[in-house]
Specification:
single chain; 20 strands; mainly beta; 6-stranded antiparallel β-sheet; 7-stranded mixed barrel
Length: about 290
């Protein structure tokens, strides 16, 4: 086996391989997938000299620990967390050299949810439909990391960035999601529409890569019945029978039968990836472009 590889010492609660996803296959029932906080993933790639589309690791809440079999440059971004090499604290949000055989430990997020780990050369697992991303809904791509797994690394093609540290957005204390109302807003009462756009919800602990679930006032439908299954887009706010809005994220299904009350602007979704359970959420209506 090549020495350009990472050994997984501690997989953490949920660590997956992610890149920029596999868009263009919704008509085949394949979600886009990819890094939930794409700007964070792109930034750590840039810090280690990788192209934007290189695969990184996306950790959830409690990080992971890795042992490279060759010297590598790594950068950790997204949710802030402690980072150590053989027990010695190193920089978060900056390129760090890790010797072969050293233990790189990405600790528990101090705020936010998802931390991104870029390694020089990128994670070179076999691509599926043009992407190395793990899709938790369809099962496409590599499985979530497990202890003792070994991940191949690609060849280094660029020098790492010459910076001490770079600014990154802080995880949101309040998640403000701009939405375009519709297309199925007529399935809800006028009171429900006012409630949706004026109330404060909270991020549910049941949220995942498929959808950000919320807790708060229930949204009443104007009439009973169910829609025929129809296409769903990234950022769709679907309302299941319990009346609690769910924001579809990268691994969302491509079809669904619950009414979509609104669609979140794509530029607001990276913040949703970092909103921890209990974070206040407000839906703010904006005009269609």
């Amino acid at each position: 086996m090549t020495d350009r590889a990472l050994a997984v010492v501690r997989a953490g609660a949920l660590t997956t391989v992610q890149d920029l996803g596999r868009p263009g296959y919704a008509h085949l029932g394949v979600p886009r997938s990819g890094a939930l906080d794409a700007p964070a993933a792109t930034l750590v790639n840039r810090l280690v000299g990788n192209p934007p589309e290189a695969a990184v690791l996306e950790t959830t809440l409690n990080g992971c620990a890795l042992r490279p079999r060759c010297p590598v440059t790594v950068a950790v971004g997204g949710a802030p967390c402690p980072v150590t090499v053989d027990g010695r604290a190193v920089a978060w949000g900056a390129p760090v050299r890790v010797p072969a055989g050293a233990l790189l430990d990405i600790g528990t997020a101090l705020s936010g949810v998802r931390t991104y780990v870029a390694v020089s050369g990128g994670v070179a697992v076999e691509p599926v439909l043009g992407s190395r991303s793990t899709d938790l809904l369809s099962g496409l791509g590599p499985p979530p990391l497990t202890d003792s797994a070994v991940l191949p690394l690609g060849h280094v093609i660029g020098a790492h960035a010459r910076v001490d540290v770079v600014p990154q957005p802080a995880p949101p204390a309040e998640l403000v999601l701009r939405v375009t109302v519709g297309p199925r807003d007529d399935w809800f009462t006028p009171t429900a529409l006012r409630t949706f756009t004026t109330s404060t919800y909270r991020v549910s602990s049941a949220s995942n890569r498929i959808g950000l679930r919320t807790e708060g006032p229930s949204l009443e439908r104007a009439f009973s019945g169910e829609l025929p299954s129809e296409g769903m887009v990234l950022g769709a706010v679907q309302v299941p029978p319990d009346g609690s809005p769910v924001v579809f994220l990268a691994d969302h299904p491509t079809t669904g039968g619950y009414p979509v009350i609104a669609v979140v602007r794509a530029t607001d979704l990276p913040a949703a990836a970092q909103a921890a359970p209990g974070t206040p959420v407000r839906f703010v209506p904006v005009r269609r472009h």
